[in-house]
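Ticket closed. Logging final result for TRASH domain-containing protein.
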Amino acid sequence: MRYLFASLALMGLVVGCAQTSTEPTSETSASTTANTHCPIMGGEVTADGGHTEWNGSTIGFCCPECQPKWEALSDEEKAEKLAAADHADADAHDHDHGGHEHS
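Final structure:
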């Protein structure tokens, strides 16, 4: 009887693990990507825009057309585009400091 319970428990673990998928889902969004703005077009990262792995990070896009353009870039160009998108995101979140701008 003891072996029956152990076998059933082991089968439950194996079946449960077999149903786990490592495929990317369409739920990837800016909250799960390294960037909040698309490195190609500059728009906000969307769940249906697609994503890819690069240098250990998940990079998100604003639309499916941007991913092939990203893939065609060199690593140096990718780093530049990603930095520019991050910089644009920081500029978009500037705070209002009493109606004056910093130069």
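The radius of gyration is 21 Å. No further action required.
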